[in-house]
Amino acid sequence: MNDHSQDKDNSNKEFERRLIQALVKVIYESKGRRVTIRARLLLRIAGERIDQRSIVRVSMFLKKLVIRNLIKSETRKRFQKSRSLNYVVHEGMKLWNIAKMSPEEAEKLIQSELAK
Predict the structure, then answer these.
(1) Which residue in 25, 68, 71, 104 has its CB near the most CB atoms, within 10 A?
(2) Backbone φ/ψ region at 69: left (φ over 0), alpha (ψ -120 to 50), beta
(3) CA dihedral 104, 50, 55, 102 (to 10 degrees)
(4) DSSP H helical segments within the chain, as ranges?
(5) Is 72 helix (H, G, I), strand (E, B) or coil?
(6) Considering only CA atoms, which of 18, 64, 67 is closest in space to residue 43?
(7) Is the pLDDT assigned to residue 1 strictly greater than 60?
(8) Which of 28, 17, 29 shows the shortest CA–CA distance to 108?
(9) pLDDT, tens digit, for every residue of 61-73?
(10) Angle of the 39-46 helix axis to the 3-29 helix axis, nearest 10
(11) Cα separations (Å) of 101 from 38, 91, 107?
């Protein structure tokens, strides 16, 4: 692997690590029984720049978590033709319970699921 692709890989891992921390933080600090997450919100909490490329990267990250059954996706119809995709974590889910008890363990769970 050349230096450029290695730097890019490290950058992607760091970006993903910050997203994982932001997601766990949202769940841990929530007061209710359910959290709705959108790509822009996760970017803002992670302290990342909000641009189209980053939003797409976050969406791909969240879709991976849906595939691994860590979170759920919901489509909400906003206007006549407009739809928005939200991601949900609620109190009946494994990730919710782990994040509330031990945020560090929740981060490890997400990282291990994404590594599969």
Answers:
(1) 71
(2) left
(3) 10
(4) 3-29, 39-46, 52-67, 94-101, 103-115
(5) strand
(6) 18
(7) no
(8) 17
(9) 999 999 999 999 9
(10) 100
(11) 23, 12, 12
